[in-house]
Amino acid sequence: MISTYQKPLAEVDAARADHLAYLADLEAGGYSVTAGRIDPPTGGIILLDVDTEAEAQELIAKDPYVQRGLATYTATGWHPARGALAGYQRVRPA
């Protein structure tokens, strides 16, 4: 998921703690592989481990940035074939 901020950075940053808590929940559930802000800070990327775009959209709808109108996300499918994530195996907590 690639986000684009829809509000000034100061407004986005005011909600950042809630957004980071949301990301921690995704990580704890085994849904987020990695995430980070784009440089310059105009949005970010969340690499989700899901089976469908619909599942990604359902998860991202819970992001405080989305719920507060601070960011929109675009889904982009990807299958790592090389590098550190090649051969990545899904890990979901029991």
Automatic annotation (TrEMBL):
Pfam families, A to Z: YCII (PF03795)
Lineage: Bacteria, Bacillati, Actinomycetota, Actinomycetes, Micromonosporales
UniProt record similarity statement: Belongs to the YciI family.
InterPro entries: Dimeric_a/b-barrel, YCII
Domain YCII-related residues, every copy: 2-74
PANTHER family in the record: GSR2449 PROTEIN, YCII-RELATED DOMAIN-CONTAINING PROTEIN
Protein name: YCII-related domain-containing protein
